[in-house]
Amino acid sequence: MTLIVPAPVSSTPGLGAAFGLGPATRVQFHGSGAEPVARYLGNLLELPVVEGDEAGSSVIQLTITPGERVGAYDLAIDVDAVTISADDPSGLFYGAQSLRQLLPEGLPVTISDAPRFAYRGAMLDVARHFFPVADVKRYIDAIAQLKLNYLHLHLTDDQGWRLEIDGWPELTAIGASTAVNGDPGGFYTQADYTEIVEYAASRFVTIVPEIDVPGHTNAALVAYPSLGGGSYEPYEGVEVGFSSLAIRSEETYLFLDDVFRQVSAITPGPYLHLGGDESLSTTDEDFLYFAERAAALAASHGKTVIGWHELGRSRALPRGTVGQYWGFTTPEDDSAASTTSFVEQGGSVIFSPADVAYLDMKYADDSRVGVDWARGVTSLEEAASWDPLAIIPDLAESHILGLEAPIWTETLPTIEDVEWLAFPRIAAIAEIAWSPRTAPFDELAPRLAAFARHLDAAGTHYFRAPEVDWLPTSDR
Ligand code: TNX
């Protein structure tokens, strides 16, 4: 068995001796766009990097031959050379990640691989607890190993507003000062955000910013009470659904236009997420009015809108709007209808079923952090054993943009806590997003054990789930 997670489309073990890294080993690149990946791999393996495509012994050859297969790659390891070829730089990067997982053993193998879904995401809630730039970069490095290619940042919520917006200084002066439990607040300047975006891009990860409206807005309302029309107190609890922007006030839309314009300008990726979940204090009529206007505004700044599935209650969304489903693997009728509505409006769906893909669920009743509202705890095996096509049978493969594993941080003040709940379940979800079929769990488990060596090497925290025979490394 080839010890890679997510499992590649095909892999055939070869004969002969292993490829060993030695004093003469070098990374050689050829084709435009190959150099950054070659430098990344050279850095990681501490090897020299040269340009060319001459055969030679102890060469790791990276070659791009431009083509249509985004993210696909071929990898061959034999005794004196490794070759990775791809149609585009992301494919080369994924080939490099596979190689990394196969070292230091370097057993001979031929792999041909390509992603199942175009959108393979993680979400980090930086609103309930704030995570500085360095923590976000660490998370990006960890998820990039799993060939995840989107990081959704939940930037605003009742407990904190985390992004600087020019012309609205109190959003961060006041709105960013709080976090759950009275823990320290914080925010990203636009320069910080750009640093995250660029770092992510160097790992072929695209940032998806979320400005959650019209609910989940208490922090913005404390900063600018006129956006809601009442008076507001800072909030450090964990209840949801009590706040709302003033739906019928023009100031709301001037505000959103400013925010969406600025966020769009510093976000090179195609998506802008405007939340829309749990607007429990907004009437149906107001919600529909708001959804239409806010989504049109976001789209007017050149972005494809993403919303939580409740946004699909609106039948007046910009064409192509993406819905993110966060119900259970057995949906209620109205959430299924809201989700299907995006497809009926020319869009697609991202699946984040809360009972299997929410990384903030406890693993077991005695987990020291986490929550359990989504049908109780979620074991590693449960996170690994679901079928995106079985959730809403009306939605076919072609309607599914991809999958995302969110982590909400009400109970998670540190990045170590985040990592411990995310890993290894996020690897199981990355496998469903990448691999063409869901492997039986007993085939995944040994690959997770092998992957943990890389988590250990990077100092990434993870839960030694009882379903896996972990290698005898340091306990975390
Ligand atoms: C539900 S999921 C929420 C979040 C919470 C999360 C906690 C979703 C769209 N809304 O506001 O943080 O549960 O697990």
UniProtKB/TrEMBL annotation:
Residues 117-436 form the Glycoside hydrolase family 20 catalytic domain. InterPro entries: Beta_hexosaminidase_sua/sub, GH, Glyco_hydro_20_cat, Hex-like_dom2, HEX_bac_N. Transmembrane segments: none annotated. SUPFAM superfamilies: (Trans)glycosidases, beta-N-acetylhexosaminidase-like domain. GO terms for biological process: carbohydrate metabolic process; glycosaminoglycan metabolic process. GO terms for molecular function: beta-N-acetylhexosaminidase activity. Keywords: Glycosidase, Hydrolase. This is beta-N-acetylhexosaminidase. It comes from Glaciihabitans arcticus.
